[in-house]
Amino acid sequence: MKVLITGGAGFIGSTVAAACLDEGIDVVVLDDLSTGRAEFVEGRILYRGYIADGELVDRIFSDHPDVHAALGCAAKIVVPESVAEPLRYCEDVAAGTPLRAISPRYFNPIGCVPGIRDHDHDHDLARAHVAALRRFDAITSGDAGAAPYRPIAPGTGHGTTVFELIRAFENVTGEPLATEVVGRRPGDNAGAYPDVTLARELLGREPALSIERGIADSPAWHARRDLALAADGND
Fold first, then answer.
1. Is residue 130 a contact partner of residue 174, using CB atoms and an 8 Å limit?
2. Do 128 and 79 share a structural domain?
């Protein structure tokens, strides 16, 4: 199997690409590198460009007629910016929407935001994408009850408050975390976390890695990232 991953040079997209390769799935990456890094797709097939560039997309499928599906990881993620420029965000999301689709919905692969959120380890999310690929036809067109468009939330299903996340950081690192209590950003709500029942049923998987594991893995990932960028002479 071969898949096209848009946004495959970004944090989530490159992790999903790695999970696909681990499962024997070949990947082709389309990324404009506006926030992604070429270093993250070293050794992989990369086309640099915008997902709504029809000529480029046609060329990719002409070069790779064996592409079975597309994984859309190309998106902007800055909450205040999405509130200030909603049409720009909608354009980027709508540009890559296929006729049949599974739409994984998740909250915080990493980081801290106001309110209650479901914080998911990026490797768990990447494996959920692979599971969606493996079961794509059955979920969207095969079995009874299948639908051509399926939003699925492959998270933990448990909310974590900011203060709980702070305590988890301190427990993992053994150091106090400097904090400042401020108002919400534009676009933030009080809290949200998903009902993951459908993900369990359709994808046949559950998250395996804890929030503490995600916190512990984050410095190691950033250290590898900094080494890669330093080797290329980038900041």
1. no
2. no
